[in-house]
């Protein structure tokens, strides 16, 4: 999120020659592969295009990383699970419900096949500083909260475990250190947020920390429309905890930090 900053070089990871040139020039110790189409409803409608990014490009990147002797961490998702039997351990069998989850699971397999020393890090729904509110499925909820003249319903069904990108970055940095210290450390890792919230719960929290109304929002206790989502995809964090790796940003604290400026700009 908020990734368009001075000094960053733009590379199209769907073009292997571009990736190869950068890796051979930079010779990185470790690559963090976070590029993906992550909107489930978009993936349902653009599956082939999405698969090229989420799977094919990921496989190529892993193979090229191996060729230059670089470790790689592939960022994946809790949506590889169907949400019926949480908490999910790293060795539980994934059963994605939607095409987004399918492409991310295929991406995991492709990366691990292309680079035997690769690591996969599954994370939940993310939020953080954004350039536009719709960049995150969490921050975009501010629009719903602010539309106090428009009665609306928001999903109160699917249980989510939102995670601030600062906490993800902290986890990744700790994991990179462990990977570089231990060449035999690889495979699947998971980190889930510590607070269980539905989208309705998130709206209420946003309203409370920003002193906004939420009486116009009604909880919808039925499954959300669109691509099917897992009911409760909470993941077990024990493999990372056993490595003394952890990070957490309380949701109200994190979401206030992210959205306060958006409210201030409109006042």
Automatic annotation (TrEMBL):
Pfam families: RmlD_sub_bind (PF04321). GO terms for molecular function: methionine adenosyltransferase regulator activity. SUPFAM superfamilies: NAD(P)-binding Rossmann-fold domains (SSF51735). Transmembrane segments: none annotated. Pathway: Amino-acid biosynthesis; S-adenosyl-L-methionine biosynthesis; S-adenosyl-L-methionine from L-methionine: step 1/1. One of its GO terms (cellular component) is methionine adenosyltransferase complex. GO terms for biological process: S-adenosylmethionine biosynthetic process. Residues 8-261 form the RmlD-like substrate binding domain. It comes from the Eukaryota. Regulatory subunit of S-adenosylmethionine synthetase 2, an enzyme that catalyzes the formation of S-adenosylmethionine from methionine and ATP. Regulates MAT2A catalytic activity by changing its kinetic properties, increasing its affinity for L-methionine. Can bind NADP (in vitro). Belongs to the dTDP-4-dehydrorhamnose reductase family. MAT2B subfamily. Heterotrimer; composed of a catalytic MAT2A homodimer that binds one regulatory MAT2B chain. Heterohexamer; composed of a central, catalytic MAT2A homotetramer flanked on either side by a regulatory MAT2B chain. NADP binding increases the affinity for MAT2A. This is Methionine adenosyltransferase 2 subunit beta. It comes from Hyalella azteca.
